[in-house]
Design brief:
- The chain has 540 residues and is of the alpha/beta class.
- It has 3 domains: 123 residues, no CATH class; 145 residues, no CATH class; 114 residues, no CATH class.
- 52% of the residues lie in helices and 9% in strands.
- The chain is built from 22 helices and 8 strands.
- The protein has a 5-stranded mixed beta sheet with strand order 6-5-4-7-8.
- Helix 7 packs antiparallel against helix 13 and helix 11 packs antiparallel against helix 12.
- The two termini are 25 Å apart.
- It holds the Pfam family Dimer_Tnp_hAT.
Length: 540
């Protein structure tokens, strides 16, 4: 490894750290330079050329000047300060030219007097921090077999966030893979394909969740975010409630938080926020009446009646979504949740005028969801629902799919968690039919396994991912276990990746002028992932 020595810091545990970008390498076998070759060729082309005696035909962009191998404590401290400052700028959505502001320079002069900025600091640190976080995400995704992708239209109307969802310790985890300019379907499609290819995800993707308008054609199972469709339906209903907007504005003026809502960015407030706002106002009704007695925004008795109506209409939606969220809001819950909400809202006869348009809109979306194989098969693989919400047509399709998929009868191995059972569970399980011991051909065994699965009943308190992770579940339903991750691999509601305030939008406009399109996308990548992943140190 001698030719790389001046670019490396050797750590006590046998690991090495790149002095250019601070990337830490795992302990390598003696004389093994494969990882170093790849890293320097991919990340540090100029140094790679120097090491291998290659003359550059063109001038390459300036890279960070490598520190000496001695790497004093001052060098380490300066590197940490550089990193923290770039995390501050990207994580807090500050303009990059903030670093040139006299007030900031004065602060640094007082707080860190010996620290000096390199003229290439913004450019070099942006690249370094991006490489660090991209590497972390790439490492995490390398351990995952099934993922779903979210395409989220941002509130600025210019950008799309590309998000990956996967299960980590039976909980949903998401990371922003990239940010794409919304510049036409063909351009967007190509950029998204590039992002997915760069992270090596194309063979792992089970589904795509669309949030906002569909602006790209992707060759994967697609469904629209449930939360967006519920929001659309509820807004349709509240448009019929003529006093709603007036009461909403009054309450917002009282709590003095209008500046912080997404409505300022041209996006209607979401139904769960509306419910919480009105419910809290009703709890503080006497206080609000006292404080606004002489106010022009005084809330009348009719206004309070409207607030009670809004909470009553939204309450069954809140209750149903909370119940599902407790045991895992997977894509398998979409069809059952829509059917339950339609029934609940139809039973609210006293609010029929507002509930009717909500129900009609949910029915329109339900028709789309019911035609989606991913959602239908996922629902039947969910221990909470099974065939309770499925039509015979789809049950037959599912049975046929299992038979066709298992025609080759290939050996299938899946790592499952070993769960210690209590004596009662062992006794009950011993009384159940073991489909693997029944005589008959493979297709007959699959048919009996599916029949047994449907007859065994449901459990609304179970998390479907945790349930299938148990060894006992695999033993009881080996064929179904083989496919469960393919159809339970997405959340019902995609994550909102922007959460942009009016200040964020202004800063985005400023930074777009200071950076080229590639670096601006890296800035937005860091802005989003720092909020999700945190600011832990490189050594952690």
């Amino acid at each position: 490894m001698g030719k790389y020595t001046k670019y490396l810091e050797y750590l006590d545990d046998g690991k090495m750290r790149c002095l250019i970008c601070q990337h830490t390498f795992s302990k390598q076998k003696d004389s093994c330079t494969t990882v170093l070759n790849y890293h320097f060729k991919k990340k540090h082309q100029k140094e790679w050329n120097d090491i291998n005696g290659i003359c550059d035909e063109e001038e390459v962009p300036a890279a960070k000047i490598p520190r000496t191998a001695t790497n004093s404590s001052e060098d380490v401290r300066a590197s940490k300060i550089n990193r923290a400052i770039m995390q501050l700028v990207t994580g807090a959505s500050l303009p990059l030219n903030f670093l040139e502001h006299p007030a900031w320079k004065n602060f640094c002069k007082v707080a860190i007097p010996k620290f000096q900025f390199n003229s290439l600091f913004p450019q070099s640190e942006l690249q370094s921090l991006y490489a660090e976080y991209e590497s972390k995400i790439r490492c995490d995704l390398s351990k995952v077999r099934h993922v779903s992708i979210g395409i989220d239209e941002w509130s600025d109307g210019i950008h799309l966030g590309v998000t990956v969802f996967y299960q980590e310790q039976n909980q949903w985890t998401h990371r922003v893979l990239g940010v794409v300019e919304n510049s036409g379907e063909e351009f967007v499609g190509e950029k998204i394909e590039e992002i997915l290819e760069s992270f090596g995800l194309k063979d792992k993707i089970c589904s795509v969740i669309i949030r906002g308008s569909k602006t790209a054609s992707l060759d994967f199972p697609i469904f629209e975010c449930l939360e967006d469709q519920l929001n659309l339906a509820i807004n349709e209903g509240f448009d019929k409630l003529t006093t709603f907007q007036n009461v909403y504005d009054k309450i917002q003026n009282i709590v003095d938080k209008k500046e912080d809502t997404s409505e300022q960015n041209g996006v209607k407030i979401r139904w769960n926020t509306t419910h919480d706002l009105f419910e809290r106002a009703l709890q503080l009704r006497e206080v609000i009446n006292f404080l606004t007695e002489e106010n022009i925004h005084k809330i009348t008795s009719n206004d309070w009646d409207t607030a009670e109506t809004v909470v009553s209409i939204l309450q069954p939606i809140v209750d149903a979504t909370i119940l599902i969220q407790k045991s895992g809001m997977t894509n398998s819950a979409i069809i059952p949740l829509c059917k339950v909400l339609i029934r609940e809202l139809n039973d609210m006869k006293e609010y029929q005028n507002s509930c009717e348009p909500i129900v009609k809109q949910i029915e329109v979306e339900l028709e789309k969801y019911e035609s989606n194989e991913l959602l239908q098969f996922g629902m039947m693989l969910d221990v909470r629902f099974k065939d309770c919400f499925a039509e015979d047509e789809w049950k037959n399709k599912f049975s046929q799919f299992l038979s066709n998929a298992c025609d080759d009868d290939e050996a299938y191995v899946e790592e499952v968690a070993v769960v210690k059972e209590d004596p009662f569970s062992r006794f009950i399980n011993s009384q159940r039919i073991d489909v693997n011991k029944k005589k008959g051909n493979r297709k007959e065994q699959i048919r009996m396994e599916l029949q047994k699965w449907f007859l065994d009943g449901t459990n609304m308190n179970e998390n479907p991912i945790e349930w299938w992770a148990r060894s006992t579940s695999k033993e009881a339903y080996p064929t179904l276990h083989r496919f469960h991750l393919n159809y339970l691999s997405a959340p019902a509601m995609g994550a909102i990746t922007d959460n942009l305030s009016s200040t964020d939008l202004t800063v985005m406009s400023d930074n777009r002028k200071l950076l080229n399109s590639d670096d601006f996308s890296k800035f937005l990548f860091l802005q989003q992932n720092l909020r999700i992943m945190g600011y832990e140190s490189q050594e952690s």
